[in-house]
Write a structure and sequence with these properties.
The chain folds into three domains: 8-77 and 113-157, DnaJ domain (Helix Hairpins), CATH 1.10.287; 165-203 and 240-295, Sandwich (HSP40/DNAj peptide-binding domain), CATH 2.60.260.20; 302-405, Urease metallochaperone UreE, N-terminal domain (HSP40/DNAj peptide-binding domain), CATH 2.60.260. Helix 2 (20-34) packs antiparallel against helix 3 and helix 4 (62-71) runs parallel beside helix 5 (80-88). It is elongated, with a radius of gyration of 37 Å. It is built from twelve helices and 16 strands. The chain has helices at 8-12, 20-34, 43-59, 62-71, 80-88, 118-123, 141-144, 152-157, 173-178, 316-321, 386-398, 405-410; strands at 108-111, 165-171, 180-191, 204-206, 215-220, 223-228, 237-239, 250-261, 270-273, 289-295, 302-304, 307-315, 323-328, 338-343, 352-355, 372-379. It has 411 residues and is α+β, with helices and mostly antiparallel strands. The model is unreliable at 90-156 (pLDDT under 50). It binds zinc ion (2 copies). One zinc ion binds next to loops.
Length: 411
Amino acid sequence: MATQTKDYYSTLGVKKTASAEDIRKAFRKLARKYHPDVNPGDKKAEDKFKEISEANDVLSDEKKRKIYDQLGFYSDNIDPAAAEAAARGGYGGGFPGGAGRGSRGGQEVPFDFSGFDFSDFQSGGSAGGAESPGGGFGGSFKDIFGGIFSGGRKAARGPRPGTDLEYQVSVDFWSAVRGGVARLEIQRQEACQTCKGKSTTGGSIECPECSGTGQVTQMGGRMKFNIQCPRCNGTGKVQNGCPTCGGEGVVTRKEPLEFRIKPGTRDGQRIRLAGKGNAGTDGGAPGDLYLIIKVGTHPVFTRVGDDIHVTVPVTVAEAALGAKIEVPTIDTHDGGGRTQLKIPPGTQTGQKLRLREKGVPSAAHEGKRGDEIVEVKIVVPKVQDERSKEILRELAKLNPEDPRAELLAEV
Ligand SMILES: [Zn+2]
Ligand SMILES: [Zn+2]
């Protein structure tokens, strides 16, 4: 087992002689810089935050700091008296069954580290995750690493729920409007058939951590501590890993998936398929599958919620005199796809006219539909002949009002 030495003082950038106030200030300054809330998604900052929190947890506590100074590492399981004795190179009453076996330097001290999991300690734990740590700003080491000291590893061996899956699904414009079936291939973890999700087939092998001896060595300054192997709890044996899943309890499979798209499905909508996420291990419940709908566009129709927007060209005469025109709708099932729209006399370009209940059927409220909003776009004729020009000049004479009068009066 590798020797673990962490220089908490240099982690916080303080001297060994630093006062409690120096340490507090140094930690707060670094915590402000590296806190996960300030660096969302930044793994490096998260790791750094864990490091400084760990250093602060030990150095800000007078008793812990003393043990750390004496041994060069800290664990909750160390009795201060034992640390004191170890630092002096003798044996006080602190060691369980403490009896000297060597004289100096590499003395072997039986030491009870049960419950202290070095492998988790070194990897930094995973309790912090993507969320901000429970302790919040300046939260203590234990808040951040919640549970790694007491049975964290044991808990990992019990039933673990499967994680959720999220897939983005592209749905074309018409399928989203009228409903349909979407197909996609997903990759999910399924319970391993060989070990039934238990990660092991039940046999035991030599513990790789201690090579079957049941003991590992931990350095404390110049001292060597023989401690019970945390991985096998001193038995020297661990359960074998399932050969099919490599001890994961799950295998990754591609799976075709077919699901119904409701009429009126909106862009960005989230569909939850309960229990269709990754399988849990050792009897844990499966996660859920979330499908995020990405709705395609249409060259003529634009969807805004349950409303359909369409821009329709109108002639000058239709706009000025009023007219009944034909506009496209999304109802093409009866061969039509068009409806009559009355353009009132004096309609301006950009004006919006509403066709009630000609929009998209609502996915949320059965029987309801959105509206179709028609935006009028006046098309000016490109006149070539003299007669048309004459008529327009005459029209202008009959209607001498200045359309810019209001605009110019404003400035
Ligand atoms: Zn072991
Ligand atoms: Zn397996």
